[in-house]
Design brief:
The protein has a single domain, classed as Orthogonal Bundle (Arc Repressor Mutant, subunit A), CATH 1.10.10.10. 55% of the residues lie in helices and 5% in strands. The protein has a two-stranded antiparallel sheet. The relative contact order is 0.17.
């Protein structure tokens, strides 16, 4: 399994949404600006996370994205599997020889399983705690509501 840019963007987007903890949904453009990537690139990832039940889309002029579940119930391994599926599946070694199939393929599979086990043990809540410990500010700016 590869750690792709798409995976990093997906985990960071979910973490950013979880960490901002405001009453308003987080807009796609805000996430994209924070990550320094085009909105169109991020949209595919966000929609996939919505379909998987990790995020919930909120429509309207003040719409955006929220977590669909509690932070402690979303694991990085789940996001990694989803993005791997989006990219065509988990890493498979294209080994043709007998020694490759018998010796190397089991090693690659074991490494991939270890990688996923570590990610399965890491929740978005854990990452939020790390961000708090690092002194990262939770809310970029206060939202203003001008109503007359």
């Amino acid at each position: 399994m590869k750690v792709t840019r798409k995976l990093i963007f997906a985990v960071e987007a979910v973490l950013y949404i979880a960490y901002t903890t405001s009453d308003r949904p987080v807009q796609r453009s805000e996430i994209a600006n924070r990550q320094g990537i085009p909105c169109r690139y991020l949209e595919q990832v966000l929609q996939y996370l919505v379909r998987a039940g990790i995020l919930r889309g909120v429509r309207g002029p003040r719409g955006g994205y929220r977590l669909a579940r509690e932070r402690r119930r979303i694991f990085v391994g789940e996001i990694a599997r989803l993005i791997a599926e989006l990219d065509g599946g988990l890493l498979e070694a294209p080994v043709q020889s007998d020694i490759g199939r018998s010796v190397l393929t089991p090693i690659w599979q074991e490494l991939q399983e270890d990688y996923l086990k570590k990610l399965d043990a890491l929740s978005i809540e854990d990452l939020c705690s790390q961000a708090r410990s690092a002194g990262i500010q939770q809310s970029k700016k206060a939202t203003m509501d001008f109503a007359i």
